[in-house]
Amino acid sequence: MATFGVVGRNAEGVTHTEVFGKDTASFIREERGEEPFFVYLATIAPHEPPAYPARYDSLFSNEQAPRNAAFNEKDVSDKPRWVRKHPLENAQRIEAEDDIYRDMARSMKDVDDMVSVLVGALGEQGELDNTYVILTSDNGFHFGTHRLPQAKWTAYEEDIRVPLVVAGPGVPEGQAREQMVLNNDLAPTTADWAGTEMPATDGRSFAELLTGDSPRAWRKRFEVEGAYHPGYRRPPYQAVRTERWLYVDYETPAQELYDLQADPHELENVAKKKPGVVERLSGQLEDLRACEGQRCREAEGG
Fold it and tell me: CA-CA distances (angstroms) from residue 244 to 6, 58, 222, 262, 274?
């Protein structure tokens, strides 16, 4: 069994990403057999400490962590107490975040190489045109958003949005979709492609979204939740994200409401200004928390 130590490289200095990619390519070339196959490959990159080949040491040397309007937010007086207690980031902390961001970007270049190896193996075996490839993540990540140190434990956009790229039979190249797709949609979508059935699930197949045809109905909102976070001392929360709003209800007497059309960076908490919206979204959140299977289609509004 290979071990990689705290630096993410084995005894030969090869990253876990390179090893996992080569092992998976070997499976595709030599061990998959004649039956349809499914491969799930989760890289450690870009988790800390981000491991990457030495040849990428000089890449991204001038890159900075994302600097949108929410970065190091000057006025957080309308935010919950757990956010307000964070001071403005100083130059030293910002520099440290930029350093880790650059290393993460380098480790993702290693992931790019791995994807190229796998796509090449599929092509060599004549399977590329008959295979769906999904690239996604389990969570987003923030660097200094609303003054918060780098992490992923909030309901803000940087944390709950994840990339999703799909290639495969019938998927048009270079097109984007705006519908809300969740991680719990991946299993039913894969079952749909495989022509098999699976037990009832809260998710749904998004295969029809990829063909260019508009589905009869699709979700208009979804639930987000988080347990107590000791590092931030953030209380547990439940939230609902709609096509326009983010509403967050904490177990402490705190609420957040953002109009994402007017305020995409979540700078102004309008919970106290919009009691009617809070009441409506609170009801939707209760429905989402209680739903199972088909009931989740109704709770999600489509």
Answer: 42, 41, 12, 9, 14
